[in-house]
Amino acid sequence: MLARIFGSRTSRIEEASWNTGATPNVVKRRQLPIEALPTHDEVLDTAYRYWHSKRRQGLLPSRNDIDILEITKIIKHTHLIDVSSDTSEDWCFRVVGAVVPQTWQWGCGRDKISDCPWPPYRDMLLQDYGAVKFTGAPMYHEIAIRVDWVAYHYSRIVLPFADDGRSVDNLMSCVFHRDTPDLPL
Is residue 8 pLDDT above 50, yes or no? Predict the structure, then answer.
């Protein structure tokens, strides 16, 4: 596996590559400040505004605060991840949005993230979800991945939820397919 980090004044691009036989695979991601979330990106902006509207007195919203009927426009872009375990190997998807191409689904709901068959992608998910769990702050990324010659480019926002308002136990991740020409694969 090869890992590289490219820096600039506005963002940092992280890249990891690995081979499965003769196939070169790669994952690249760039973290951007939440303030960079484009308001014209209806899916991610709606997810962020919805999450923010559910906060009470500065505390994090609970997963029970999510009303599916209030987010029908974004539900197919939404994943729910259980991160209640202190051990990241036990974190798992509870809901997987319908817009994720079948290629990127390594099974059905309740899959453990640690079971992801693509090591750099798995490590990226665990790192990003761990950072949101630890900080209790949303994260916004642009991501490009290629596995077995199939490429997928998307933006993602990860939002923390906590039953007690403080200790993150669930995440909501919304993804939106987008071209990222400055993250070539």
Answer: no
Please give the Cα distance from 107 to 127 (Å, whole number).
21
The structural domain count of the chain equals 1
42, part of any domain: yes
pLDDT in tens, 56-71: 998 999 999 999 899 9
Separation CA 137–CA 82 (nearest Å) = 16
End-to-end CA distance of the chain: 15
Helix (H, G, I), strand (E, B) or coil at 112: strand
Q: Is 107 left (phi over 0), alpha (psi -120 to 50) or beta?
A: left
Ranking 4-8, 47-51, 93-97, 127-131 by mean pLDDT, the lowest is 4-8
26: left (phi over 0), alpha (psi -120 to 50) or beta: beta
* Domain hosting residue 81, numbered range: 32-177
* Gap between the Cα atoms of 147 and 10, Å rounded: 28
Q: What is the dihedral of CA 102, 47, 163, 60, to 10 degrees?
A: 140
Q: State how far the alpha carbon of 47 is from the alpha carbons of 4, 7, 56, 90, in Å.
A: 31, 28, 17, 25
Asked whether residue 25 is assigned to any structural domain, the reply reads no
Angle among Cα 36, 40, 44 to the nearest 5 degrees reads: 65
- Give the tens place of pLDDT for each residue, 78-101: 989 999 999 998 999 888 877 766
